[in-house]
Write a structure and sequence with these properties.
49% of the residues lie in helices and 0% in strands. The chain has helices at residues 33-40, 47-57, 63-73, 85-97, 101-108, 117-129, 134-141, 145-164, 170-174. Helix 5 (101-108) crosses helix 6, helix 6 crosses helix 8 (145-164) and helix 7 (134-141) crosses helix 8. The chain starts with 32 loop residues before the first helix and ends in a 22-residue tail after the last helix. The relative contact order is 0.12. Mean pLDDT is 78; it is low at 1-12 and 178-196.
């Protein structure tokens, strides 16, 4: 007997941390490794290499995926999506501070999504609220049991503070896990997707 499996949660459109199939469509795919290193990881004063790398990246069909991969991996060296590390610095800062509950819930549902520090803390908080044990949280985040227990204690204190805050209105307490609106991007850099 065949069984048809359905997924209760629709796909989120998020690229998984281990999904690299886009690289085969990149304009730089198949380049000689030494040339690629010289062009995409130049010294800061090597403007000729930087300009050549940007010229390759400009019409690249997977520029968006390249940018997202740089943000998710925290890669702050080299040229990614036609942007130098200096040009990506503000995006990296936003990515490290990002709290996107779509990413968090996708991660909790089993997707391999790269999470920021704040998102990892939110995962622990939600897991505590769901009654998960330290072993499960540790496995999920790749931590040992002792560190997972420490994270759980911190999350439980945070949850208790949020519930017991005297100046918190019932509406604010109810919105403790609400999805924040953090998708604003500087207009001068354009829209580079979901990573930042």
């Amino acid at each position: 007997m065949r069984t048809i499996t359905t997924h209760a949660n629709p796909t989120t459109g998020l690229r998984g941390a281990n999904e690299h199939h886009w690289r085969k469509r990149a304009a730089c795919y198949g380049m000689d490794a030494k040339l690629a290193d010289a062009l995409f990881f130049p010294t800061p004063r090597d403007t000729r290499s930087i300009d050549q790398a940007k010229a390759i990246c400009g019409p690249c069909p997977v520029r968006q995926a390249c940018f997202d991969a740089a943000m998710d991996s925290g890669s702050d060296h080299g040229i990614w999506a036609g942007l130098t590390e200096y040009e990506r610095a503000s995006w990296h800062a936003k990515t490290r501070a990002r709290i996107d509950y779509n990413r968090i819930h996708a991660f909790l549902d089993g997707r391999a999504v790269a999470l920021s520090h704040g998102e990892r803390k939110a995962v622990v908080r939600i897991a505590c609220q769901r009654g998960w044990d330290a072993e499960r949280i540790g496995y999920l985040l790749g931590h040992n049991l002792e560190y997972a227990q420490k994270l759980m204690r911190e999350a439980e204190r945070e949850i208790a503070r949020a519930k017991n805050a005297t100046n918190t209105t019932p509406e604010a307490a109810a919105n403790f896990n609400a999805t924040p609106l953090d998708h604003e991007r500087p207009a001068e850099l354009g829209n580079f997707g979901t990573a930042a």
